[in-house]
Amino acid sequence: MQPKDYGFGEDERILRDSARRFLDEVASIDKVRKLVAADHGEAYESATPPARYDGQVWQKMVDLGWTALAVPESAGGVAMKCVAVAALAEEIGRRALPSPLLSTLFSTFVLREAEAAAARPWLEKIVGGAGAALAITNEEGSWEPARTGLRAQAKGDQIVLDGTAHFVQDARKASFFVVSAASDGGVALYAVAAEHPGVTIHPDHIVDLTRDQARVAFDRVSIPAAAQIAPGETGVAVLRSALPAMLTVLAADMTGAAEWQLQTTTAYAKVRHQFDHPLGFFQAVKHPIVNMMVAIDETRSLVYNAACAIDGEPELALRYARMAKSSASDTAAFCSGRSVQLHGGIGFTWECDVQIYFKRQRHSQMLLGDGVYQREKLAELL
Amino acid sequence: MSERKDTPEQAEFREYCRRWLAENRPTPPPFRLPQSPVEVMTEQQRVWLCAWQKKVHQAGLIACDYPREYGGGGHQGFQRIASAELARAGVPYFINVIGLGMAAPTILHHGTEEQKRRYLPPLFSSDEIWCQGFSEPGSGSDLAGAQTFAERRGDQWVINGHKVWTTLAHFASWMILLARSSREHKYDGLTYFIVPIAGAPGVTVRPLVKMTGETGFNEVLFEDLHVPDSLRLDAVGKGWTVAMTTLLYERGAAESPGGGGGESHEDRIAALIELAKHTRRDGRSAWENPVTRDRILKLLIRVEALKQLGRRARVEALTDHPMRLPLQGKLLTTEISQDVAAAALEVEGMSSTLYLRDENAPQGGRWPHAYMNSYGLTIAAGTSEIQRNILGERVLGMAKSK
Ligand SMILES: Cc1cc2nc3c(=O)[nH]c(=O)nc-3n(C[C@H](O)[C@H](O)[C@H](O)COP(=O)(O)OP(=O)(O)OC[C@H]3O[C@@H](n4cnc5c(N)ncnc54)[C@H](O)[C@@H]3O)c2cc1C
Questions:
Q1: How far is the CA of A346 from the centre of ligand 1 (A)?
Q2: Nearest to B193 by CA among B221, B153, B234, B160
Q3: Interval between CA B51 and ligand 1 midpoint (Å)
Q4: Last residue of some domain: B200, B217, B250?
Q5: Residues B391, B290: one domain?
């Protein structure tokens, strides 16, 4: 039986409210804009695309214990419920905050499903503030755990990794990668320091201003066998069991961003006048804005349902998480489109903040698979 | 091969167009040409595109139906053919798109003999680029709310105000300007002018940046720009009527004296299908995914419908209301552009995160770029919401909402 209140109790509320206060202070839209959109030339024309985030804010997020939230107590974390992590992600998304938090949470979800002894040192690093990122996606951008762009081969007591992981999120904010590689027994998982010899980060030129993304090449990267966090026999299962939390937390981020799009567009429809009326007077403006709200509420409900299942009914978690991400992707597409369209000419400019969210949402929509993909995978579970 | 309804002269002209285009198709320049003329930014692009337009004009494929004394070909029923052949040939677009699409027909309908002789020939040849000064910070959809003021002083007008989103103003010699000459009446207080831009004292053009990260539109500030009364187009207080002529052409409801270059919807659908066939994920191509394929085929069918809508609009016996089909064109063409680009992003999946500069971006990163630009299309020239109001009110006769 799932708790009526999704398990969202006093502790979760305190965390969420303190996150709100903190983010209001350090991550106002003006600050985020200054950080990532001060200059369109720098954003899109630099030979090396920027990977801007505020390191001091990140340090404070670490000090607030956010990286420890999803880490088991055995590795020095606080093991909060997924509903708490989802609520935090929603606040992050609402600010379109550039930070390695989401990628680090994803890595945490994988590490805590992996072999405890091997994963512990890496989880401890995360608690200590190390950013981490998943390097599990191949050239096709596949989200099937079994498909990887890397190969692992045992050489004595060492393992040698070769190949390239694509679409690695926040690669330049990470100090280590959680890597999947085809090995003799199946797909095995490893943790590899970003600085490790043979690891090269090739930054992608992406549309989203609030993230960085890269191809991470592994050229005969030799690591000790102890760096294996899941053997070939269990790697795919480990990734799969981490998936519900990844999908849910990402969907929560998207819900927060969509809510910002809703509030910002609503506010504009109240102050901007045409034909002697505020825009919201016109039903062609009012109704799509209401539809944004309706879509967001559907998504948000599905997000908390999924988070709650992760906390209490793991056998249903993946099904509910697929629903949440499917809904979040479609909501994000709709809200992004309407937020630009209903601002008119100003909405199409760099100077208008809606472009920042539009791009983050478009990116999030594809991350871990879009709505069509989620529904296809959901069908397999029914 | 001639089209069935061509007269012998038209058939001969079509043959000529095809031959000329086959022989004179330009080799692509060594630099990137933007997807549409409203994105032209660099001097290099400008020079190249102006040379192309000039050449096509000299060959007689622009302004075919305009009188010869205005730089036209003096024919009848030839422009449709030239534009269709230009589209079919898939040659580059014309840079002076606002000149051809809006300023020329407005000047032809409302200008004096001197104005037509002076302004039309260099417009067609693109020796002079034009821009459109309608929108202002406070008035976009509500165009008649324009506040840029034109004050009469003897046989001069003094212009003060602020125009925004002004496409191509950075290259423009001239602007078609909608200004307020009286504060007493909203619609009847508007007067329409031709005003100089490049180098004119009292005019400042500042680039605005689009969400794509590119410039291409601008804001234009007028501080005591003096223009002679000979630059007024039509009567004082008739600006709204003149603007309606411009909008009729801007929204594609009437034929412009030059068009058809650039990429068509058919080309885009072909590129999308190509993309779907070459995008492999999880052991199959995107084209093999029935959901994706269905989405693409629905678009293919809508594109065909749009093409047939344009064709049917010319067959009086098959149209019930003269403006019913023409007024749908802008709405449909821009929304289809948006949907085609959105479908392409779905096909690309994670690769849709990669932008123009990325060497691994499918088809050069054109789709995320086109998707963002598509919002420029559904907003500019009367938003989709405004188009729907117009269709509901003017064609279907429903109550006015404003
Ligand atoms: C790429 C681009 C190029 C452009 N180039 C030019 C140019 O060269 N010259 C020029 O003069 N202008 C140009 N424009 C401006 C364009 O014409 C205006 O942006 C457009 O008319 C909308 O006006 P606005 O931006 O003030 O938006 P608003 O009028 O403020 O509209 C905001 C939103 O409210 C909706 N809305 C407003 N009124 C109503 C209503 N009555 N009923 C229902 N919905 C309503 C609109 O549809 C829109 O979604 C360009 C715009 C773009 C995006």
A1: 8
A2: B234
A3: 32
A4: B250
A5: yes
pLDDT in tens, B292-347: 999 999 999 999 999 999 889 989 999 889 999 999 999 999 999 999 999 999 99
Its pTM surpasses 0.90:
yes
Instruction: Compute the distance between CA of residue A246 and CA of residue A236 in angstroms, rounded to an integer.
Output: 15
* Domain match, A261 and A375 both: yes
Ligand 1: centre distance to CA B140 (Å):
5
Same domain for B230 and B282, yes or no, is no
Residue A64: CATH number of its domain: 1.10.540.10
- Does B400 fall in a domain? no
Nearest CA to ligand 1 atom 37: B141
Q: Which two tokens stand for residue B264?
A: 């068509």
Best to test chain B binding among A39, A205, A208, A325 (most B CBs inside 10 Å): A205
Domain span including residue A206: 132-232
| Closest to B97 in 3D by CA, of B149, B58, B39 | B39
Same domain, A280 and A219: no
Strand A132-135 versus strand A176-183 pairing type: parallel
What residues make up the domain containing B340?
A: 265-395
Distance from CA of A64 to the nearest CA of B (A): 31
Tell me which amino acid residue A312 is. Answer: G
Number of domains forming the structure of chain B: 2
B185 assigned to some structural domain: yes
- On whether the CB atoms of residues B371 and B342 are closer than 8 A, the answer is yes
CA torsion, points A218, A223, A226, A229, in degrees to nearest 10? 0
Degrees to nearest 5, angle at CA B264 with B260 and B266:
140
Around A25, how many Cα atoms within 13 Å sit in the side-chain half-sphere? 9
Identify whether residues B271 and B305 lie together within a single domain.
yes
CB-based contact A67:A95 (threshold 8 Å):
no
Is A74 at the interface with chain B, CB within 8 A? no
Ligand 1 site residues (CB inside 6 A) read: A 272, 274-275, 279, 282, 284-285, 341-342, 344-345, 348; B 131-135, 140-141, 165-167, 217, 376, 379-383, 385-386, 389, 401-402
Number of domains comprising chain A? 3
Q: How confident is the model at residue B3 (pLDDT cuts 50, 70, 90)?
A: low
Q: What is the pLDDT of residues A114-141, one digit of tens each?
A: 999 999 999 999 999 999 999 999 999 9
The reply to whether B228 falls in a domain is yes
Chain A interface mutation, best of B339, B350, B393, highest count of A Cβ atoms under 10 Å: B350
A18 in contact with chain B, both atoms CB, cutoff 8 A: no
**Any idea which residues of B carry the catalytic annotation?**
250
ipTM above 0.90, yes or no: yes
Q: Name the closest residue on chain B to residue A214, using Cα atoms.
A: B354
Does some domain include residue B90? no
Taking an 8 Å cut-off on Cβ atoms, the answer to whether A45 and B357 are in contact is: yes
Are the C-beta atoms of B268 and B307 separated by less than 8 Å? no
CA distance A367 to A252: 13
Question: Are B282 and A352 within 8 A, CB to CB?
Answer: no
pLDDT digits (tens, 9 = 90+) for B188-200: 999 999 999 999 9
